[in-house]
């Protein structure tokens, strides 16, 4: 990936691999409308982690994401809920707020953690977060990921079942692959989330495979991928490794430095700017 010269303006260029230190709302406000094909991000929610004391102006972030997202573009919003005296339901409130400002709730997906350690005394172990796939109009890109089927070949398959409940069958073909379900499972922790030890200097890291799967699904090579709260740089790493352009923003200079070093360790050159 070719390194892009820093301009110190925070404005995206036509061929970009950059990290920007700054408030993502202010940075996005300096951009033109409708320039981002895909956003993949996991925002801080419910004050579950200490992000160096920075606040999280959800409404302003959502409004700017809608404005800078291209027609047919997608925002993947990975978020969970605080569990303390019941669920906060922050995730659903945020999804509804996105819908109210114009996004379509194209899909509601589940990120299942295969090896979560967080057991509860009076409820089942929580092992998931929500992945809201929000689109600006109809998604312009969908490259479905496939999974092998248990059976394939010609079979008599149910057909045209009516209100009488009778199964009618006709000869049909079961394919060798089918589109994956919207529940995606990943191991977490070192070796699962990532093998990059430096990433864990950030308090919350999501799996590289999760980011990559969404990047492959909702964008094409050359598209601009954004993470407005980029943390340790997971979205950026997977975007650049898959020939997308990338802009990552974080208000913390420390987190940007983690992301920069992590990308450099992977041989990915990236410019670092400070928003004016």
Structure description:
With 276 residues, the protein is an alpha/beta fold. The chain folds into 2 domains: 17-145 and 182-274, Rossmann fold (3-Layer(aba) Sandwich), CATH 3.40.50.150; 147-179, no CATH class. 22% of the residues lie in helices and 28% in strands. It has 6 helices and 13 strands. It has helices spanning 24-29, 58-68, 90-100, 208-218, 234-241, 253-265; strands at residues 17-21, 36-41, 69-79, 104-113, 128-135, 146-148, 153-159, 168-174, 177-179, 183-186, 224-227, 245-250, 271-274. It has a 9-stranded mixed β-sheet, sandwiched between helices. β11, α5 and β12 form a beta-alpha-beta unit. α4 (208-218) crosses α5. The relative contact order is 0.22. Mean pLDDT is 86; it is low at 1-10.
């Amino acid at each position: 990936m070719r390194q892009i010269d820093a301009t110190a303006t925070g404005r995206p260029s036509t061929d970009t691999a950059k990290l920007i230190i700054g408030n993502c709302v202010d940075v996005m406000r300096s951009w033109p409308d409708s320039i981002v094909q895909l956003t993949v991000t996991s925002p801080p929610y419910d004050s579950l982690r200490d992000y160096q004391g920075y606040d999280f102006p959800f409404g302003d972030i959502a409004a700017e994401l809608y404005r800078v997202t291209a027609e047919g573009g997608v925002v993947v919003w990975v978020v969970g809920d605080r569990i303390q005296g019941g669920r906060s339901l922050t995730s659903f409130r945020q999804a509804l707020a996105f819908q109210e400002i114009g996004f379509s709730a194209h899909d509601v997906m589940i990120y299942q953690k295969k090896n979560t350690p967080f057991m509860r005394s009076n409820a089942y172990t929580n092992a998931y977060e929500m992945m809201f796939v929000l689109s600006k109009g109809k998604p312009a890109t969908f490259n479905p990921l496939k999974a092998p089927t248990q059976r394939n070949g010609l079979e008599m398959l149910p057909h045209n079942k009516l209100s009488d409940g009778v199964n009618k069958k006709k000869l049909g073909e079961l394919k060798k692959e089918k589109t994956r379900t919207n529940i995606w499972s990943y191991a977490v922790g070192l070796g699962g989330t990532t093998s990059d030890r430096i990433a864990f200097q950030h308090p919350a890291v999501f799996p590289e495979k999760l980011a990559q799967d969404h990047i492959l699904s909702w964008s094409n090579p050359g598209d601009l991928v954004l993470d407005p709260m980029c943390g340790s740089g997971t979205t950026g790493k997977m975007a650049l490794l898959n020939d997308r352009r990338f802009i990552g923003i974080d208000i913390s200079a420390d987190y940007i430095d983690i992301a920069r070093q992590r990308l450099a360790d992977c041989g990915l050159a990236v410019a670092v700017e400070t928003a004016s």
